[in-house]
């Protein structure tokens, strides 16, 4: 990857890449191809294959990240056989490997790039390993409690002085290795520091700031910081930003800070932003909402060829979006990714006089579509974007012009036809927040349907949503999330017991719209949340039959809350999901019984399962039988209404039965409303917590190809 293209990495430069083939196929290819770049999965590490690769000097890149079959012995064997030729190695997310095994990376002396995020490493082991990697230019590590920079040797610091790209995940207040990286051009920081220790002691975000501790940002081109909830993460990131405010790097072209909630602007950050407005032209920008709300900052910022903007949760009006970002219709063909999640006023001319439920101004969206015609990732979730009646002016009709889209996140209400369709039975509002012990709510005014698959299941050609998906046949990632949806399981606080009712327009989106998704033959990731008018879930069967590339599925609060109406359809769908790896289900009264697990057992590729059900139940024998049948499953997270004793017993049984054969096995079974949930969550490996356990919109969450 060239230095001139840090934020647009195209993967591994040149050559042919092979990933995940069987030993036999790879042996055949390698026997007939004289020169090849090989991306090798650890499952293909037989001795004959390794020897052939070694003889041909072919192995440049090895990706073991999240390869849950990578045992200690296999990793050691791989490094021993072909380590000397590996130039790029990723062990990201291999949390089950011991530090002594990870230390074997030191034998790969030709390494230029190494990703060890999620791996266990002490300061001393890190020092020993980096001392041997003199060619290293790109590094990703975790900084955990107990890290001590004074234990890094001179040889280690010499290696770090040549590192140009650093990704650092902080679990403790620290600069980590940043002060040693004096040649940094790209810095990615993930702040995952908890405010309190497990014993309840309050942590301090203050660091010892001396001359040797000051980061060196003079060559920095990309600065990215993502903060988990908590005040201490904000305290520590301010220390990183303080150095930037003194002197803004003249080559800075991507500045991104992702913060949940509010993050007050300080004098130092104001100086930094003023300096950036004067001295740099950016290609990517994301700022905390409090820094942008009511500010004229965007008016003064200069942009070169922007490829990523995120204004998530900002009170940015459509007028400001057009005037200050798009410059009244300026050509932004370079823009590849745009995140307007939670920007409730971004498609209306004025935010002061508008109610959230008012219709959008379609001319603003049209200007956006015309100016940003090459968008590949667009997030409009967490807002009410209602279209008025008018030929060709519906949001779905305008978005259908963005033929390059590969990922799209929309609020459920935005895909409803402007006027209720004659072919749909009106659905009454659904009661949510069902108290425990008061029985289940009954939907009123909906015709009964003896056969669950005789309902309105065929997508209607007249539907604007059907037409949108027809015009975006190469969409790979789709999210339909209710405007008022919030997961029952937030990050660092107790579970949410109540939820807001869905938007009234979402009542017009049901099984027909879900069935329309079946048009997307290349769909890999699907999220459906808070669709109250799903009556039978029959549209799910269409998706299972036609979306054969589907790898991750997240369903939350479909249909009525007091009963899981889509269980037969989901069971039928799962029979066809041969590529499904991740399944997340969130439903208040979900019964994880034998029928469900029998259906799930027909997904041979399944690796991760997460179930969140406030009043849900488990059938322990069915869970054990499922785990015994599905040998690839390494993540089983279930947060239900079962007792603590039942949960602990099942968790211990699963670990006792399957841990030895599956080194990556991570089992968490716990009552969702238990006060100890926060302490349980903190022990979940970050790779699972971030990707499946916690619900969030992932479209345009980060710039594309932020890290290799």
Word description of this protein:
The chain is an alpha/beta fold and 708 residues long. Among the domains are: 121-300; 409-415 and 465-491 and 504-692, Alpha-Beta Horseshoe (Leucine-rich repeat, LRR (right-handed beta-alpha superhelix)). Helices cover 26% and strands 16% of the residues. It has 22 helices and 23 strands. β17, α17 (567-574) and β18 form a beta-alpha-beta unit. α1 packs parallel to α2, α5 (123-131) packs across α6 (154-161) and α7 (231-246) crosses α8.
Features:
708 residues; 26% helix; two-stranded parallel sheet; alpha/beta; 21-stranded parallel beta sheet; F-box_dom; F-box and leucine rich repeat protein 18; Leucine-rich repeat, LRR (right-handed beta-alpha superhelix); FBXL18_LRR; F-box-like_dom_sf
Low-confidence stretches: 1-21, 34-57, 421-457
* CATH architecture label of the domain at 409-415 and 465-491 and 504-692: Alpha-Beta Horseshoe
Main sheet properties: 21 strands, parallel
Give the class from helix and strand content and strand pairing. Answer: alpha/beta
Let me know the CATH homologous superfamily of the domain at 409-415 and 465-491 and 504-692: Ribonuclease Inhibitor
The outline comes out as globular
Count of DSSP-assigned helices: 22
Mean of pLDDT? 86
Terminal CA distance reads 9 Å
Strand content: 15-25%
CATH topology of the domain at 409-415 and 465-491 and 504-692: Leucine-rich repeat, LRR (right-handed beta-alpha superhelix)
CATH class of the domain at 409-415 and 465-491 and 504-692: Alpha Beta
Count of DSSP E strands? 23
Estimate percent helicity: 25-40%
The whole-angstrom Rg is 26 Å
GO cellular component, one term: SCF ubiquitin ligase complex
InterPro entries: F-box-like_dom_sf, F-box_dom, FBXL18_LRR, LRR_dom_sf
Domain F-box/LRR-repeat protein 18 LRR: 75-665
Protein name: F-box and leucine rich repeat protein 18
